[in-house]
Amino acid sequence: MDIEKKKWEVLCSEEKLEDISKEVGAKISEDYKDKNLLVISILKGALFFTAELTKHITPVTKIDFMMTSSYGDGEINIGKVKVIKDIDYDLDGYDVLIVDDILDTGITMEFLVDHLKKKNPTSIKTCVMFNKQERRAADISADYIGMEIEDKFLVGYGLDFKDRYRNIPYVFCVLDEDR
User: Fold this and answer.
1) Average pLDDT over the chain, rounded to whole?
2) What pLDDT, on the 0 to 100 scale, is given for residue 75?
């Protein structure tokens, strides 16, 4: 697919993304007010969402990062997840919140939860900006969801196509028609 030649449609403006982050951040703040929260952001896609979301989480929190790979060089999830960068913290005593850009097939999130459970956190919950339920292949759901979406290919605000377009400050979907 050459998205340069396809029509795009804005799904979420900068303002809507900020509003969603505020709303989700308020829920997380309430749920974690008396807990030892550690946010684990999944790079590279969740970087923008994590940065905006954590501005709206009121308990002081630590943030760590993981990087996994399952997509290769395009939009097809190859189904095998590997850790490129693991966390730096010992999770003992932390209530972990995994933050990712999108929950699609669920394969990566299922892997992350299983991987991090082995590190003995007090608890693990998950948070995603976008939930794409209809493509779910793993038996997993997110605890906090910014927005439910249909099966569309999304780009921007951390979501990429061939490692480009992440820095676009809004999210657009690529339409299946030429410009």
Assistant:
1) 92
2) 53
CATH number at residue 130: 3.40.50.2020
Q: How far apart are CA 48 and CA 130, in angstroms?
A: 13
Measured over the CA atoms of residue 38, residue 39, residue 40 and residue 44, the dihedral's sign is negative
Q: Which residues form the catalytic set?
A: 104
1-5, 129-133, 166-170: segment of lowest average pLDDT = 1-5
Query: Which domain covers residue 135, as residue numbers?
Result: 14-150
What's the pTM value of the predicted model, to 2 decimals? Answer: 0.91
pLDDT at 26: 98
Strand order in the sheet with 144-148: 82-85, 62-69, 37-43, 95-103, 123-131, 144-148
Q: Classify residue 105: in a domain, yes or no.
A: yes
Does a structural domain hold residue 7? no
Contact status, residue 22 vs residue 56, Cβ threshold 8 Å: yes
Strand order in the sheet with 153-155: 6-12, 171-178, 153-155
CA 175 centroid distance within chain? 22
DSSP 106: S
* In contact, 88 and 39? CB cutoff 8 Å: no
